[in-house]
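Page 47, continued from p. 46.
Same chain as before, 209 aa.
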Amino acid sequence: MSIVVRDVREHELDSVLALNNAAGPAILPLDAARLRHFFETAEYFRVAERDGALAGFLIGMGSHSEHDSSNFRWFRERYPDFFYIDRIVVASRRRGGGVGRAFYADAQSYAEMRYPQMACEVFLEGSNDPALLFHGSFGFHEVGQHMMTEADVRAAMLMKPLCSFAWVRDTYGDALPQVPWIIQARGPRNHGGPKAADALMQRPTGTGL
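Result:
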């Protein structure tokens, strides 16, 4: 079955919270209030469906965000313009089935129209080589390390240049074509940031590896 990546819906927040807090030590825990804050403010908050069931989620925001993560601040102190992946979680039964690659392909498709690079981090505590290998295979490279004092965890700080951004900017400026897969969204929870419309983003993506 294909993987469908689309904007999260409000009634799914409890399921998203359960997924996050069952993900293990590679993902910081959330409470309902924090997740609600993401729902109301995050520029990119999408879920993946497979076989009609929730398979994971990804939350991201641009460098203009007021996000209070110390990892986000680390990037913003060093880079003026980027799209930041705060967290990606894939349900344990769906890992290795292409959901992560579908998410990253969708996030890159969104970000490369608006930002010159993508940023994320991978925790270095324990055995996290699969996550580092995954990000390396997707074009990310380490640009430094950061000790997260709030979690007592060291993170590898990763960046990926988005080569299409300069061409899109030079060709279209701020007037992107009004086509479904890049149209910007409506609604108060954008708070001025771009976000693709839910109805238009319910498209299947390739499963990858």
